[in-house]
Batch of 4 targets.
Target 1
Amino acid sequence: MMRQQITADIRGKQMEIRMFDIGVNLTSSQFAHDAPEVVARAKQARVTGLILIGSDIPDSEQALALANQWPDYCFATAGIHPHHAKDADNSSLERLEELLSDRNRALVALGECGLDFNRNFSPPADQERIFSQQLELAAKLKRPIYMHCRDAHKHFIELLRPWVGKIPGMLLHCFTGNREELEECLELGLMIGITGWVCDERRGQELRQLVPLIPDERLLIETDAPYLLPRDLSPKPKSRRNEPCYLSHILEVVALLRQQSPEQLRDQLEQNCRAFFSLTR
């Protein structure tokens, strides 16, 4: 009965939902020709703001430039993704420190950084080196850190653990791990970002079981657009490109899984986002 009631509430109040997308790759070439329209659709869909992810130095500079086009609506991160670790050198880290030291109010976290042993676009040793250096930089500059981990949990936790308490906030975005990995991340105080992966009845089954275990104050949601278009969207978009305007669907699914009303969850997520990224508007 509770599930039926929540579903009814979702259908009846969908247009009232407001939420913040904490993961958008607006610098992707998939958005090269219509980024303003993408932002406009997000606003029309009652998304209250976007975090634009930086994945290397040029990309981080571009994310910041885009964020400055929509002040107080778009914010940016700056970091070196594990895919780009092999190309990073001392000058890359120096430029990253310059960006983060500037305290531009649109730049709200260090990242995306971490480990990805699934594709190994960069050798694991390079990934671990660059991740460790960014952890050190986040602690030095007192910046929250925005992280990625795929098929590398053991090494990720080993590198992260010494910095717990020294970095003001830690977020693992696009979580797709198992229960043991989730519990270890929560034990270390990490915020957990959930994407449209949870809407995939094939790959997302385990995640659907884990979502209710995340404490209210540790949860965030994101599209990771243009990737991870929710598989169960209906009607299906003509394009397979994901956009922030679909965030409400992810919120609805997460609310249903957690046996919460979308309004209750929305308010908590908004509070979590503003606290983690120190958004004052």
Target 2
Amino acid sequence: MSDAKALPPVAMTVCAAMLALLAAQAGAEDDRASDNLAGVSIQIDNDLLAGREMDRDYTGGMSVTISGARARDGVLSLDPMLAAFDRSSGNQAADRQDGISLAPRVHHARQFGLMAFTPADTLTRAVQPNDRPYASLLWVSNGRMQVQSDDSAHFSSLTIGVLGLSLSEHLHGAVHELVGSARPRGYEHQISAGGEPTARYSVARHRLWVAHPSGKLDVKTTLQGSIGYLTEASIAMSARFGRIDTPWWGFAPELADYMAAPVPVTSGSGPRELYFFLGGRVKARAYNAFLQGQFRDSAVRYSAHEVQHLLLDLWIGMTMQLFEQTQLSYTLNYQTAELRTGQAKRDA
């Protein structure tokens, strides 16, 4: 795709939304019969949406998440592989307790997305060894939410993607042209430039601690671990308050590592939702391919002792139900510095 013919981001968003909606509609009847959760979520991340003129670190991304049986059974579904990983790792909710059958309700999601990272100076074509490297990931992912009880749920996801594709440069450049900025010029130095496959397996345990009878407050904790292009363990607490009608386990901002996890899309049946949310997460990260690279040579990469292994995430936001089955959510995220030294030692 040449620069002159790159689709504007608005057009790409509309196209992605139409494709996702068509895919969900094609399996709508089957979804309602077998999964009871059929929906589409479109997420757009960009520094511009934070109200600050910055273009660095995790600079932006986009994903489309489809829920229901179509996510489990459709083309490119990784659910069979994910189920095998869950069996091998023991990440399956118990189906019996004290002799009573507790077969978990399992809900499915599938996600496609692209995200990009840059140094602070995107106008320099030369290698910038003191700053964060350019990096990108194009991926497909499947997620499973196993709801064990009213206050317990297990989540798992499997992601397969490609690092270092030139697609990110074209899309990033199209966004800059739309807003009247110069195109980024250093993507030829990105991590695994030219493309390299990568993968990640993640598991999480959710526990609901507070569920106010009025339906206006819920608080939960999440223990999470993953291995792959991000290898880490974390503990998080999140809360939402206001007019709440969707299940507590379907709200999972604490699972976001740059982009939101493939969590099944949920909808309520009562009054329109309007709630605020906030939370925090402490991560012990052992490896980050977006900074350390993988097997291919990269122009800029950091060693394990240069990477910050203890990180803090904070978030705050609002969710508003616009129509019967349409919600809009806005989130501001903060993360402590991922590197110990150099110009890239900055909070995001």
Target 3
Amino acid sequence: MTAKIASDHSEIAALDEADTLAGFRDRYILPEGLIYLDGNSLGPASHNSLAALSRAGNEEWAEGLIRSWNTAGWFALPSQLGDKLGRLIGAAPGQVVVTDSISVNLFKLLHAALSLRPGRRVIVAEEGSFPTDLYVTEGVAATAAGVQIILESADGPPIEELIGAETAVVLVNHVNYRTGALRDMRALTEKIHSAGALALWDLSHSAGALPVELDECEADLAVGCTYKYINGGPGSPAYLYAARRHHGSLRQPLSGWWGHARPFDFETGYVPARGMRAFLTGTQPILSFQALAGALQDWADVDMQMVREKSIGLTSLFMQLVEKRCAGLGLVIDTPREPELRGSQVALRHPDAYPVMQALISRGVVGDFRAPDVLRFGFTPLYLRYRDVADAVEALRDILETEAWRAPQFARRAAVT
């Protein structure tokens, strides 16, 4: 069953009519009748990404075979894609490589940060961080003698007050994955630097959704993924950033052959490559790289300020309509109302959030659930319409009013939520 169009109000129609980003929707492949509000978890395929993937498989691999490492430029892709992606995160060329996963890259960068601050043994992070960040941080602490982890908690002092003389690095999410709350990158980075520590930002829920200015904010390090707002495909490779001022001093622990200065000399000892290639480890996933290359074509002419303005418009409309149409139905908005304090998603709390979301999905409105009680909706400005927002709220209202979510099939937990 697809989502029913619930409103053709002139105000909504006028917003879509005035939308300067409306033409970008045609670049993406969206099932007919589906309202997709989960691009903050997995973005849709684009015509460019599928064309690039087809070309990589049918021509570069099938025809070129091993020659394509040279003839198709496979070997250079980590740096080339890094520079293209750098435009979306405010990084000048030569400071980003695309490689591995966030978890692996975070492990590299935390170790590298500790090596830059050898007299300090404290990592400060957020208790509400995406769990993999915490798991990896625990793993780093287990392999680095004497390292202590201090976490900002909901009922404790803010992260700024946890940074001290023993802090080596502060790991912080630019946008909170659950609530959508946005950190002030410039102000927090200045605070971290004033204590002599390094700032490591996780951009997973901000890159591609709003302007990010790593260089201008003087961030030290950053990680992020490419399968959410950037639309690189399921499991597409992540990226990492290191400010140029740290190049030559950083040493990452996973010293594989792709990070060697001369990998095809097959030397016995390890000599790190210069610059960001030193953060590479093993052979790269070329088919995923080429799909990402196609996805990045879609961003070449995108104005990120326009993306941000529409994002604020979409999220503001959603919250206004939820308050108006779903009043008294058990929903609590858990995302900051102030536009400057949120990313491009809205979180609603409800005691039966899981079956409510499953009922929504059955009606063609796709968001996701985050334990224990969060209905999470992502708003991706390049392909969402204002009418989609209005129709999604109407479907949510009907499900809650009729208690359609109580149907037994909606309570069955799937492996991925």
Target 4
Amino acid sequence: MNAPETDKKLRAIRTIVAEIATHLNVPLSLKIWDGEYLPLGTDAPNQPALVISEPGVISALIRRPTLDRLLRLYAHGKVGFEGGTLIDIAEAAGQTSTRGRLKQISKRKLARALLPFVMAPASNVIPSRSFSGDEIGASKESRNEGDFISFHYDLSNDFYKLFLDDAMVYTCAYFAEWQNDLDRAQFDKMEMTCRKLRIKAGDRFLDIGCGWGALICHAAKHYGATAHGVTLSKEQYDYAVERIKREGLGDRVTIELNDYRDVDQKFDKIASIGMYEAIGVAAVPEYLRKVRSMLAPGGLFLNHGITRRSKRKKKRFGKRPEQRALVRYIFPGGELDDIGHTAQELERAGFEIHDIEGWREHYALTTRMWCERLTARREEAVALVGEQAYRIWVVYLAGCSIAFTRGSARIYQTLASATVKGPAPVPPSRADLYR
């Protein structure tokens, strides 16, 4: 690029940012390709900052202004953040209300300033790491649960070790005190789960989607259960098998690399922690009927799943750009239910609901910790999975924390038993949960 063209683009981006900053006035900056920081508000600090590494980024977004294009540019390092994570950027932006302010920006002035980028070469980004099949899995015939799970969880056990707790728990932690560290909060989550299920010595316990085996080992070691786990992830299965041997639990804990629908046993207690959102809403009735068929008389079932707010009209998950990105780059086949529909389907499947507890703020903090821990170990992560996967996971974890903080995503633990005419298999109060 020759000097006049470079100068023209620099003048243009300064004009654009100045116009936006006049109306937006947030404590952030934009760092552009020549290293200059352009404030997005009055006396905005240099950091945290959004980063644009080359003018072709603007050209690319003018031609295809989609979240998917932005994510690809981000995955390839063409855009990014400096001096903090996406969470820090969102918090800084949230300090000032922007409602209505963007409408005040002169569209004519922006359009004129953008002219130098319209015909200029765009940043070239090939598709980032993404699921190659039907990532939505809208129909039963097109869903491949094994491929969905493998895409996310078989990335690398060592990669997940970089940001998870020592027990390798990859679901929402439970903070009895907000200042607790991640290891304590995940231990307390497993404790709370076992207490809600009222697991006791000799109980046959099933964990559907057992991950790296933390909960089945915990239930056997601390509550005397005979525990069994199922997973579709080969990486998780291999790790859990070794873990069971290492902890000397081979006589009480088993695991199989299998679909939960192929399990043909009865259990006194069943948990599904962070698996519900992976099955698709259309499959919920089949899922709950199967769980009901595996639950022994007097047994308890705990369903722990991410949800979204209920809508006036039922629409498929995945219509919004951020939802499409989630299933394409992170969780293919994933779909969020709302808690009202979950409760309705539980009752239709023959369950009686005893308790529904929201853990939204707990997951906001959990995912924030994961994001910060992974960011702190960037070099190790890149060495294990590559720059693109690292960047996508960091922005995914940050996005989750933002969504749970703002309430656009929720998470609930729902305790249920098989419907009976007599006494329910739970105590008269919840006092035993908080001993």
